Amino acid sequence: xxxxxxxxxxxxxxxxxxxxxxxxxxxxxxxxxxxxxxxxxxxxxxxxxxxxxxxxxxxxxxxxxxxxxxxxxxxxxxxxxxxxxxxxxxxxxxxxxxxxxxxxxxxxxxxxxxxxxxxxxxxxxxxxxxxxxxxxxxxxxxxxxxxxxxxxxxxxxxxxxxxxxxxxxxxxxxxxxxxxxxxxxxxxxxxxxxxxxxxxxxxxxxxxxxxxxxxxxxxxxxxxxxxxxxxxxxxxxxxxxxxxxxxxxxxxxxxxxxxxxxxxxxxxxxxxxxxxxxxxxxxxxxxxxxxxxxxxxxxxxxxxxxxxxxxxxxxxxxxxxxxxxxxxxxxxxxxxxxxxxxxxxxxxxxxxxxxxxxxxxxxxxxxxxxxxxxxxxxxx
Length: 380
Fold this sequence. Notes:
alpha/beta; Rossmann fold; seven-stranded mixed beta sheet; globular
């Protein structure tokens, strides 16, 4: 089976989909692995490392894609490249299928089987393939480091002959994968951390990391079957804003991680609360790229609001691209290996197992994912 790994073309993207170590594992499975020349360079992996792993280095991108039985990527492909894939090709990458409707339709039209890394179901068995979680873990770390860099004071308490410095107060909203890593990182740096999540079930996890859980009674919230926070009603959002106002006003750093899968995130920190923070404070909005949790945050920019630094930087794992590449590459390999037939030397699209049905978007010339199919039908 011929596997192709093209170079990422998104501006500024330094993560790569396959590392030399994963390339070696794919070759051991029996794959004929082709790597576009320069694919690994943004994360520091030269072509020679892939050749040593048993892969072939290819300069003709179009010819490589045209002959591929499977394409492995990080980001969604350029729309114009889909027509160059052969019918029956399996394409695996992030796809953003909730929003990229033309992309999904193009996959179906050209009879390409599209697998979305975002749609891998959350279960114990799928953890090793869960790219959303692996990248969110790194994003949680990066958010704290960005905040620490911009804050005009240190995080830990420090007792010196010149006086005692109090620890910084950090408030983290959202205790999913990214939020929990942010809590752990801020605590390791010595900050005093408070956190909130709409799911009371995570309070114990927050407290186990040494943080204080802010208890706000929002009524019935809960979580989805996949473990995501449910979208709040406007009344619940207002209640949350009112209850956290005093904590935000006293915080040196506020980090928001509240995202609703496939939809615009809620605004949970209005501009008035940002303006009410002390000058020199820092706010990091993880959701800025998709609409923002913080009123006034700007996608991929750092702005000043009444003396408060508001960071809306996107693609946070890209700041630690080497480790992000290792983790994503492992996720990708584990997904491929899961249904690989070693004797036949190819990937088996087994729609009867417990993982693929949730993340296969198109197959056999049709959109087969029920959720995405309903969204597309609503467009027409």
